[in-house]
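Hey, sorry to bother you again with one of my protein questions. There's a protein on my desk that I can't quite get my head around. No rush at all, and the record is pasted right below.
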Amino acid sequence: MGQCLKLSMGTKFAPQCDVNKPINEYGINKGNRNGIQSWCLACCRIVDRKRNLAGRGRRRYKYRRNYNLKRQYGITLDDYNALFAEQDYKCKICKTSDPGSKHGWCVDHDHKTKIIRAVLCTHCNRMLGAARDNPDILRSAATFLDLMYVAY
């Protein structure tokens, strides 16, 4: 009853900080009865920072990356790293070393056979997707660009 009263007054007790804080200093957690996180955002940041300094964040990233590569493409993180190393850690098409987005590099694969072709930057991967992996469309686009450059 006391917690409900405090929530209706716009505050909640933060057990880590040991103070009452306004509700807008908490995140949303639909799993809790009241729909608000147990810890305030400041405490969550501190705990996250400690975890990352301890290396848990990096290990978790590697685990998730390995799991996703295995699930989506049937390869391990070591296979991915070996493939990327063969390409000198650059996009196979445009040779850039910039992935092109915050999400990182893309694993290019044939959607029909599921065979992995290369690691690409986001821009080249989207280009292939927009052309529906059809080489004729890409050749036609290249010819079009060549004609446009001659016109200038």
Remarks:
- The first strand starts at residue 11 and ends at 14.
- The domain at 87-151 is CATH 3.40.1800.10 (His-Me finger endonuclease fold).
